[in-house]
User: What shape does this take?
Amino acid sequence: MPTYYIDTDDGDLFLVDDEGIELPGDADARLAALRALPDMARDRIPDGDKRTFTVRVTRSDRTLVYSAVLRLEGSMASATADQPAGL
Amino acid sequence: MTSSKRDLSPLVRKLGSETPLSEEEVAALMDLSSIVREVSPGEIIVHEGDEPSQACLILDGLLCRYKITGQGARQIHSFHIAGDIPDLQSLLLAHMDHSISVLRPSVLAIIPHHGLHQLIAAHPDVGRMLWRETLVDGSIFREWLSNVGHRSALSRIAHVICELVIRFDVLGLLRDMTLPIRLTQSEIGDAQGLSLVHVNRVMKELREKHLIKSDGMHIQILDLKGLMTIGDFDPAYLHLHTLPKVLCGTGTL
Assistant: This one.
């Protein structure tokens, strides 16, 4: 079975996979990577309104197999949004 | 691990650690007729839907209770170690509602139900102790439910490591703050509802925080108190009569 390296970033902690996982093929590597996204999101949200979660899968020879991004963009709708700074 | 004379003392030790057993009760337990079997990782001891006529006491190793969902995912409900009888419920519940499989090379004592029924008839207090064991199982399931429902991945994994530390320490099997049994990341993930990749991340985070050391999946605890805090872990749900000495210095004793 080929070895895949799945790097992950939750906006705070970017981890390079230096161990690798043996998986049957590219489709399984994609699934393994995608499943990490909601897990990372569940742990970090609601910390911050702007966050990017990224997963990237490469083979042993460093060729890119798959990558995906999940973005959070949140903002409070506020009547005081136009108040000058300092108040 | 050899298959030389293996007796039921892990069960006596486990039951006796909660309530002192009389000499007659110890003798009756040790006299239970059983067949000792060595089993290998991957072996399914009992399947969901089976109607077993025996129960298996773990003498050594690691088993789990689990179910496979309609989508083919494995939910591990609990880990079981020496002294546990993971299918004890089958004494009273005819059909298995889950399966039990072997995770590491293990040794089991297979005990026919009729022997257990006879023992309980002759020694009703032992029956109550066995009933109590199944109730503690329930408490552990509730705690795992809280894990999966409301704790972060970091908490969940810290929590399950703390639980195993305590359970092994109660048996006298914790040496050098290292879990004597390997756990794979896939097993941790299937137990706590986490993807394999995320378990890998969290294990790295636990190492970076100097809470654990792990290589080839043998986990050594460097800071139990810190791990318990991260894990939101309170051993009360294990209903131990005496808290093990490993908890000294953690603020629990």
User: Anything to note?
Assistant: Chain B has two domains: 9-135, 151-247. The interface with chain A takes residues 152-154, 194-198, 200-201, 204-205 of chain B (CB under 8 Å).
